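Progress note, project year one: complex with pyridoxal-5'-phosphate.
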Amino acid sequence: MSTPLSVSFPESFFSDDVHSFFRSPVRDIFRKVDLSAICSFAGGYPSAETFPVSALESLVSTVIRKYGAQAFQYGATQGVPELRSALARRYGVGADEVQVTTSSQQGIDVVTRILVNPGDVVITSAPTYLGALQSFASYRADVVGVTPISDGPAPFAVSCGRALESCQASGRRVKMLYVIPDFQNPSGETLSLAERRALADLARRHNILILEDSPYRELRYEGEPLPTLYSLCPEQVVHLGSFSKIFAPGFRLGWMMGPAQVLDKVYVCKQSLDLCPPVLDQYVAAEYLSSGALDANLQHTIALYRSRRDRFDDLLRRYMPSGVTWAKPQGGLFVFLTLPPHVDTVGLYDRALSAGVAYVAGSFFYPGGMTGRNTMRLNYSFIAPDRMEEGVRILADVIRQAIGQ
Ligand SMILES: Cc1ncc(COP(=O)(O)O)c(C=O)c1O
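Model obtained:
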């Protein structure tokens, strides 16, 4: 076995930005644990059953026959025209409003990079997506987490407004509001139309940008879709979409729609990051989208996840002790549990793991990580269906012991 080369640089050798990076505890779970040996509700992996593997086999050949060597060449920084047009048709926008990204994680990172100087404020819901918190930290943003506190039709937007005004009053510059309006990661919640309208108004009033991150939007299991923030306020919103949960995360493909001025900065920024998104993947995605196969597969994916969500909710109701609460999500991949206040899910994690079940402690999704210690995120898309009941039963037993019932 080769020995890793030892590093002799002092920590101060690395850039100031590096010191504000933090590791994803979720990715650490994957590194340390053989997830196939336990019942894992951690991670946000889609079910591999939803990947159209056999269709892809012929699709890749079709693309290579159609485009030849061009499928392996560098492509345009904005993305190949075929994919941009297919996305523009699907979402009813102009192709020049669409920038293809190398995943939506890159979209979050690039938008933060073009907007945020160290100390600039990013307002987000608390809890929120961990990968976004990592990006914000890497640019040394001052992240302000917001929870809805008032009553009324738009409590989240009201809290965002108050946070914004309080930051401005103390001389801090607010640049961006980061939201996941549909089936949020980790809470599973969806913002109402009143919230969306109020957020759009807030962005207009204060001239800030909303970063609308929507990788789960198309995984709706019931109810009517609500308008995107981008459709309500295209001049002030950057919308991020992703192929990860509706097609194949390994393709690392997403898209961004936004105002021309912002997209132009993104275009230049991406030149220093990856020159262009992966070309073969883009042609395959364009072909898959244009042929209608994506929509057909999406129907199958939605039916599969809907039944998993229903079963998971039934199992939680059957096994969880009293004092544990959650809301059944209308879509997406996650359920967020709240336990009695004295239970610390970070401290409980090793016990759960030894008992054979994994989750992600909720506090990791809160900016600063100091709150939400009695919460946990559970994913129901990835676990093998025949292990779901066993996993919920084990988790419920671990929680019952911690509660002291
Ligand atoms: C809210 C949210 N945004 C972005 C991402 C990153 O997705 P992608 O695979 O497109 O980078 C995830 C992944 O789980 C997510 O939950």
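The mean pLDDT is 95.
The first helix runs from residue 25 to 32.
No further modelling is planned for this target in the current period.
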